[in-house]
Structure formats: structure tokens, C-alpha cells
Amino acid sequence: TPESVRIDHSEESRDPANLLVTVFKRPDNATVVTALNKKDRQFLVEVHDPNHGYYYFNLGSHTIATLIWFN
């Protein structure tokens, strides 16, 4: 939504040029993470929210994923 705000996040990647991550906070208090894999191989992605713990997933080659959760 237009009222969403991009928020700062820490990112550790062995290949930051090919794994692009953006995080937003929506007005309904949802957190949105988008991850884009520009590489010809998959990445194991780890997302950590101090209020909700960890989430791990494999991001396939040339794939974008969106995660949404409510705080």
C-alpha cells in the first residue's frame, strides 16, 4: 500500500549482489519481506523477527518470494 514504510534490516549474504532483500512495515502492522535471487543456483534464506522467531526457506534460481506476517 502507499502508506507502507521501508524499514532497515540487517543482511548477511555470501553473495549480496545476487540476493536482494527489502523489508516493509504496512499500516495494518504487517511485516513484508521480499527476496530476489538473481543467481543460477538456489539460496537458503533465513528470516529472523525477534517477536516471531526464525523462518528458513530455499529460494530457487531466478525467483522472487514475498513473506507477510502480522505483529
Could you describe the 3D structure shown?
The protein is mostly beta strands. Helix content is 0%, strand content 55%. It is built from no helices and 6 strands. The chain has strands at residues 5-6, 19-25, 30-37, 43-49, 53-59, 63-70. The strands form 2 sheets. Strands 1-2-3-6 form a 4-stranded antiparallel β-sheet, with no helix packed on it. The radius of gyration is 12 Å and the shape is globular. It starts with a strand and ends with a strand.
Would you identify the regions where 5 or more consecutive residues have pLDDT less than 50?
none
Helix content: under 10%
Give the biggest beta sheet.
4 strands, antiparallel
The succession of helices and strands, N to C, reads EEEEEE
- The average pLDDT score comes to 91
The side-by-side strand order for the widest beta sheet comes to 1-2-3-6
* Amount of beta strand: over 45%
DSSP helical segment count: 0
Give the SSE layout:
Blueprint: E1 5-6, E2 19-25, E3 30-37, E4 43-49, E5 53-59, E6 63-70
Antiparallel strand pairs: 1-2, 2-3, 3-6, 4-5
Structural features:
71 residues, mainly beta, four-stranded antiparallel sheet, 6 strands, 0% helix, globular
Concise overview:
The chain is mostly beta strands.
